[in-house]
Write a structure and sequence with these properties.
elongated; two-stranded antiparallel sheet; mainly beta
Length: 179
Amino acid sequence: MHAASQAVGGNLLNQPVEYTWDKQSHGTWRRYMYTDGSMFAEYTSATQLGRLPLVHITWGKCPETGRRIHAVGVVAIGRRATGAIAIGQMAVGLIAIGQLALGVGLGLGQASTGLLAVGQAVMAGMFGLGQFVYGGYAAIAQFGMAPYVLAQFGLGQHVMDMRAVDPVAREFFLSWIGQ
């Protein structure tokens, strides 16, 4: 057996594959179970917005190529996902949720970007929340850098941190909680 095919569960790459198809009115699942018990699955919704499926979900390695399929849709879910709403290990979208979340509007992940971004390492256009944050306007962080910062250690024009409390920063952040 070909060495590359053994790595993906015993199927010969670039050979015809017998998928299990589950076609329903809302969309289609195609699945393949490898001999080692691992699985490949892909869902594509019947509804489309332009040329993009409304929902595209991918799981596992494609038996024909031995590679993961990039999920692309209005809502995309997979190891790599791109869509208006993207959820995956690497997600890119208007709203991105993942280990690496590159969001235009909202990024939520270990490393994230977006106008609003939440994560461990954050670059935010307007507001960032996380451990290490570079915020365009405001940041709440352990280590933060922005014009307005609430942090354990902060750099910026108006900073509230362990070293000092800038009165403008104090007023700015207290206004968020109605005080």
